[in-house]
Amino acid sequence: MTATGAAQIPPVAAMPVPATVVPGQRFASLTGMLAPRSVAVLGASADAARIGGRPIDYMLRQGFAGAIYPVNPRRDEVQGLRAYPNVAALPETPDVAVVAVSADIAVQAVQDLADAGVKNTIVLTAGFAEVDAKGAAEQARMVAIARNAGMRLLGPNCLGLFNARIGFYPTFSAAFQSGWPSPGRIGVASQSGAYGTHLFAAMRNRGIGTQLVVTTGNEADVTIGDVIGWLAEDPETDVIAAYAEGIREADSLYAALAAARAARKPVVMMKVGRSALGTAAAQSHTASIAGDDAVTEAVMAEFGVVRARSTEEMLDIAYAATRRIYPAGNTLGVFTVSGGAGVLISDAAEQLGVAMPEMPQDAQDELKALIPFASPRNPVDCTAQVFNDLPKLGQFAEAMVARGGYSSVLAFFSQTGGAPTLVPHIREAMRRIKDRYPDRLYVLSLIAAPEMVAQYEADGFLVFEDPTRATVAIQAMGRFGDAFAAAPPSAPPVVPLVALPAATPTEAEAKRLLAAAGIPSAPERACATAEAAMAAAAEFGFPVVLKILSPDIIHKSEIGGVLLDVASPEAVRAGFATLMQRGAAVPGARLEGVLVARQLKGGVECILGIHRDPVFGPVAMFGLGGIFVEILKDVVFRRCPFGEAEAEAMIRSIRAAPLLLGARGRPPADIKALAAMLARLSVFAHQAGPALAGIDLNPVFAMPAGRDGRDGGPGGGSGGEGGAFAADAVIEIALPA
User: Fold this and answer.
1) Under a CB-based contact definition with an 8 Å cutoff, are residues 736 and 692 in contact?
2) Could you tell me the strand order of the sheet in which 38-42 lies?
3) Domain range annotation of the chain
4) How would you classify the pairing of strands 617-624 and 635-639?
5) Are 386 and 414 contacting, i.e. CB atoms less than 8 angstroms apart?
6) Cβ-contact 35, 66 below 8 angstroms
7) What is the pLDDT of residues 691-705, one digit of tens each?
8) Which of 431, 476, 425 is closest to 457 using CA atoms?
9) Are 692 and 731 in contact (CB under 8 A)?
10) Which residues of 103-128 are buried (b: 16+ CB within 10 A; e: fewer)?
């Protein structure tokens, strides 16, 4: 092969599944569909080129050991098999049925199968929810029939699947006309039929073994999450590759990705629909909800899924994962005969965040003694001189592996790695090192004839022509390793259940609701008169902030509804009058007065928010305020709820995190208090349910330890100092459907 919660938090509602599916066995319920002992084909054709003929032809050619029952009312025999006029005439109830009839009779076909007790159906027929409202209604009728009968249904509008292990090919893909699957332990789950089989064909042409591919089409019942979950539990699958256009149902995906991580099975996913145009195409193609791509990316990262940006990258990562070596805390050691290649690899590693520590100084000195003009730091450039003194090749390579302690090793040999006179020596030297240190991930970058590449691979090495692609694959293996080694997530904090109002509240009421959940804001008071505002300001100490208070003016700054640095009682009186005048200019706005708040100083401005994703539900956002969120979009997302450890990891993950951690002599912000606020906000949002449309806390002041914004006075954060305080808060209530 050329390789170029807290206990009181309710769970997210699961998608209804057939009554016969035992809770906790949703994935196992697909076994009769993916690995059956008998199959009926409705719409069976004697013509092996037709949709109803190809599945039978493929299964006969590949030796499906189970019974095949063609159903065709106009024929007694199909492709040498006895045919049956209808489902009721079958001699037994098949494990699975394939529906390859026209859309106008497909729903009735599913009804006939349900009446016969068939528990698994694959609907190849198109013309349903992906087409129009009428098609969506017919699809809903089909699903209702299946669920009432305890039937699992794949499709409609899918290309079916294949399980080459048992010769099961309920698909009409033309991919097999150019070759059958190679032995291997990679499973593919794809919403797109054509692209799913494209991935298979590309893997086959690369010599990557893919024995099972499932395409889900419209996902009327079986989702891509269900398929990933089944593959995660399948003992004959080691690596899972997935192609998704939009996530239709979140709960099965969560369970599937958690199962894959627990089984140490890497999931590499190509999720398309990043752009507005791509999202529209995904919706029309599979009638699914693409959702917010940044949210989907966050969910994948949470479960350790590696996102592939191209087919080539997906194949590279899946290929590398077949070695089943996933180094946590990955470090890369590079052994090269070319200084230029070493620079290329170093650039790629730095961009990808792969650590390349230097070799120990004593090891560098020893290698310098062997070849004085070598560069043994890392990359370890032994130059082409080693091929004039071949024993030194092994000495350099072993010193790097043994003394450097790298968990991943990339050796660049270029075309010399394919030279017939050198290959035996290179193989022997590298094989000896690999046998001595078998726990490392070994990758070779070279150009060689296919038969020579196969020899290296038989020795246990991954082989890539392009060293940059090799580095990308190495980085992915480290990400898998980190996910598999990660500690269980921390429990979300216990937060009192807070009842939301029926309509979007004012800022003061929003902060009162948040305070009940333990989310602090800057000291403030709602004041209906100028005199009350002056008294509040005197109590808080000058300067103060004045804000218009109205349930109808959410974005106050847009009308000049926020006044900063109000420094005297007279300024408060004047500011009160100014805000009331500006508020009165907003048509229909109800004015309740002015909010007087202590003006915080010395903290880092952050933004905390909640967005309700149509698929994944409430999702928390964190970033720094101002330019960082508005222009740089330096923010991070995570689905709710989560604990303080996860919140702190979010905070530390943004590019601008050094500003919170004490860059350039700044005092470090109270990260613990900020993480506690973010975690509590996530629980508040989760418990609020669908009535909550969103939350925006902007800015939140993360105060320096020992400061609360009043010239070094004591704060209310962790340890009684510092703290994090919301200076503005918006809670949006969802409108009734």
Assistant:
1) no
2) 67-71, 38-42, 96-99, 120-123, 152-154
3) 28-321, 332-485, 523-598, 604-733
4) antiparallel
5) no
6) no
7) 999 999 999 999 997
8) 431
9) yes
10) beebbebbbbbbebebbbbbbbbbbb
Beta-strand relationship, 161-163 and 120-123? unpaired
* Residue pLDDT, tens place only, 22-36: 334 569 999 999 999
Residue 722, both tokens: 């510092």
CATH number for the region 523-598 comes to: 3.30.1490.20
Share of the chain above pLDDT 90, in %: 81
| Secondary-structure class of domain 28-321 per CATH | alpha beta
Locate 103 and state its tokens.
Answer: 């859309």
> Phi and psi dihedrals of 624, rounded to 5?
-85, 150
Task: Supply the CATH classification number for the domain 332-485.
Answer: 3.40.50.261
CA torsion, points 180, 183, 189, 195, in degrees to nearest 10?
-30
Q: Prior bond to 699 cis, omega within 30? A: yes
> Cβ–Cβ contacts within 10 Å for residue 558, how many?
10
* 219: Cβ contacts below 8 Å, ≥ 6 apart: 191, 248, 249, 286, 288
- Tell me whether domains 28-321 and 332-485 share a fold: yes
Evaluate whether 76 touches 82 at the Cβ level (below 8 Å): yes
Q: Write the CATH number of the domain with boundaries 604-733.
A: 3.30.470.20
Four-point Cα dihedral 103, 109, 110, 116, nearest 10: 180
pLDDT of residue 279: 52
Mean pLDDT lowest among 24-28, 161-165, 254-258, 511-515: 24-28
pLDDT at 276: 53
User: What is the amino acid identity at position 257?
Assistant: L
Structure tokens at 88: 């009721």
Contacts of 361 (CB under 8 A, 6+ apart): none
- Of 717, 384, 205, residue with least CA distance to 396: 384
Q: Which of 653, 628, 627 is nearest to 638 (CA)?
A: 653
Look at the block and give the residue holding tokens 């893919």.
210
Provide the β-strand partners of residue 104: none
Those residues whose C-beta lies under 8 Å from the C-beta of residue 127, and which sit 6 or more positions away, are 103, 106, 135, 156, 157
Buried b (16+ CB within 10 A) or exposed e, 596-623: bbbbbebbbbbbbbbbbbebbbbbbbbb
| Tokens describing residue 228 | 């990933």
Residue with tokens 């508005």: 630
Please, which residues have CB within 8 angstroms of residue 165's CB and are 6 or more apart in sequence? 35, 211, 212, 236
Confidence band for 374, pLDDT divided at 50, 70 and 90 = confident
- Cα gap 27→688, rounded to integer Å: 30
Tokens of 185: 């332990």
Q: How confident is the model at residue 8 (pLDDT cuts 50, 70, 90)?
A: very low
Distance CA 78, CA 111 (A): 23
Tokens for 23? Answer: 């809770």
Peptide bond into 379 cis (omega under 30): yes
